[in-house]
Design goal:
Number of domains: 1
CATH topology: Rossmann fold
Radius of gyration: 18 Å
CATH superfamily: NAD(P)-binding Rossmann-like Domain
Helix content: 40-55%
Structural class: alpha/beta
Number of strands: 7
Oligomer: single chain
């Protein structure tokens, strides 16, 4: 897909990976509809773009129908349609599932998994009018390798991966490209929720700009999926073929955390 001149909807664009991706796409000439619940964050993102005049901000909750309709209306009225939807918005809560707050679990399911489903459903009629309709779902390495203390989050990201596989097959006859992105954790504001786990669980964090570059590269090449380079990619293979080895390794890390 050629990014220059195309219309992208990016959710979670008010900070972190979403902001970095908006900057990356703007530098390549994209037109942007940026969505987030944080109005101030969206304004900061827009001001940091190479072409701020080619971006529009939609402030609202993407789990709500009125916000999704506002995205469609803004893209259609200001840019004539939508070429690509990037489902990037996400929230994370960590800790033992036995202690999990019910509202926090519900929020993760609604934002991380239900919202992408609803956005695809609602934006698809507009997307299908593009000559290069593209859906990009930003998952996580936790969508392949389920970590203890991240049970709820991992479950939502496993769901995003399954959603991506199903949509890819369902929408292929319509010419829609579906790309699944599985980044490592990134150095964003959300990191504070699990900062105490990074060292003992041997988690490697990437800069948001690097994740954004990986997403942009995957969009340009129309990749089926994109995983970070390094040991994690091997770990994913082992997880699928010899999961007990991964069980033992991660359980040992958890035990060291509790000792």
């Amino acid at each position: 897909m050629i990014i220059d001149g195309k219309v992208f909807v990016v959710t979670g664009a008010g900070s972190g990976i979403g902001r970095a991706l908006a900057q990356n796409l703007s530098a390549q000439g994209a037109k942007l509809v940026l969505a987030d619940l944080n109005a101030d964050g969206l304004q900061t993102t827009q001001a940091a773009l190479t072409h701020p005049g080619h971006a529009r901000c939609v402030t609202g909750d993407i789990t709500k129908a009125e916000t999704r309709q506002a995205i469609i209306d803004t893209a259609s009225q200001d840019f004539g349609g939508i070429d690509a939807l990037v489902n990037n918005a996400g929230v994370v809560a960590v800790g033992p599932l036995a202690d999990a707050d019910e509202k926090a679990l519900e929020l993760m399911v609604r934002v991380n998994l239900l919202a992408p489903m609803l956005l695809v459903r609602d934006l698809l009629p507009t997307l299908e009018k593009s000559d290069c309709p593209t859906i990009v779902n930003v998952g996580s390495m936790f969508g392949d390798i389920a970590f203890p203390l991240f049970a709820g989050y991992s479950a939502t990201k496993f769901g995003v991966r399954g959603l991506s596989d199903a949509l890819r097959r369902e929408l292929a006859p319509k010419g829609v490209t579906v790309t699944y992105i599985a980044p490592r954790a990134a150095k964003t504001g959300a990191t504070g929720a699990f900062e105490h786990l990074i060292e003992p669980m041997k988690m490697k964090l990437d800069e948001p700009e690097q994740v954004a570059q990986n997403i942009a590269d995957a969009i340009r090449s129309g990749k089926r999926s994109s995983y970070p380079k390094g040991a994690e990619r091997l770990f994913v293979f082992i997880q699928r073929m010899l999961p007990k080895l991964v069980d033992n390794s991660i359980i040992a890390q958890l035990k060291s955390l509790k000792s």
